[in-house]
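Recall the central idea of this unit: under ordinary conditions, the amino acid sequence of a chain determines the structure it adopts. In this exercise we apply that idea directly, starting from the sequence alone.
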Amino acid sequence: MKAGPLALLTTAQMYAADRAAMAGGVPGLDLMEAAGRAVAEAIRRRWPPGPVLVLAGPGNNGGDGYVAARLLAAAGWPVTIAALVPPGELKGDAAVMAARWAGPVIGFDDIDWSGIGLVIDALFGAGLSKPVDGLARAALEAAGARGLPIIAVDVPSGVSGDTGEVLGYAPQAALTVSFFRAKPGHLLLPGRDLCGTVEIAPIGIPESVLDDIAPACWRNGPALWLDSLPVPRGDTHKYHRGHALILGGPMTGAGRLAAQAARRIGAGLVSLAVPPGTASIYAADHPGAIVQECTDREALADILRDPRRNALLAGPGAGQGAEVRPTVSAVLETGRATVLDADAISAFAGEAAALAALIKGPCVLTPHDGEFARLFPDLMGDRLSRARQAARILGAVLVLKGSDTVIAAPDGRAVINNNAPADMATAGAGDVLAGLVLGLLAQRMPAFEAAAAAVWLHGAAAGIAPAGLIAEDIPDRLPGLLQRLRRNRAPGF
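Accordingly, the structure predicted from this sequence is:
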């Protein structure tokens, strides 16, 4: 995956980008001036002129605030700066920008909230390493209590740029203006919600600095995987498009939803191996699928002998029966591309190493938070780092599902998805996602790219569905999305 505009930078990587830009001849003062201008212009586009209070911190984030204050004042806005430290105590570029400010500067104890219409949070930014407290927290809480629009510079103070977690306290921003590239904390909850609308502004850092930084995390989007998204050709037949096999369980709805999704995403053929007595249920709404009863392990082994069944899904609707682990073992033993979901994951609760030992080929796991916690009860840390650790331990692609789904590869690459609407919190949506991953794997899309594409398409399809979304609606929105994506393919496809 190329860096591109979807690349996400950690706080340390953003500092490295700043340093590389300055080493390449871009003055630090120019970067700060551009950052403050971006904040001022974003405000002017969204709000009419009115009294502004800038909460300025002790570092470069505060320096950006001084620039924004100067430019807003020059445009006729009444601006006051509340400085957490006296301007004379600032260092470096922030001190220069503070010296260029000719307007009023007050202490936090002297803030008069009457008449303030808008607040700029230029206190700490993404690099904060300790909880927000004292006068800074009191001022942010006071602004929030009064319902004032808060414009955050970089991130709302208190939000970790790397994890989206809150250190002590963070305000609810109406707008967050950050620079050059977004950070993981702009997409991961709760930071994503606290940021409000996020605007990423160019400030003069050249794209070339990313060559040495080599980002390994991206915001999910078609630019990451579009070139590998399968498209049928003139000589294609159904087996070229792959034969997906779903191991259906006694709870038939899950497997049926997965089959519908796998077919819609383009698998040439979908088979379901199902428990005795359920074949008629599975077949009723899938006339284009092959439904075959699987009575025992010998029958499963016979089903798996067909090498044309090149992508396998285990787990949806499987239940907690004694056969789940042997079934997962038999599937993984084939070395074929495999998706493990739901009960196939929970069957290995607390035994991730045992599961990892069984994985012999491309594999994607799609747990929600509860299933993840059962598989990795001792794995601590933020959401992004936990997903990466799990992928490395398993030697598989890990899709940690949620409103801020993280897709992680064993080599450390990660993608954060942010296009899922809240309506997707509905039964069966996860089964549809498992089927989408399966269908793309059947078409021989690489596992990491298949998982990222499936997650994005899942969210995009739900996003164009009307209110009252149910899981069955999602696959039916895929054809239009796929058609638009095909029109946007790179030349040569």
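The chain is about 40% helix and 15% strand.
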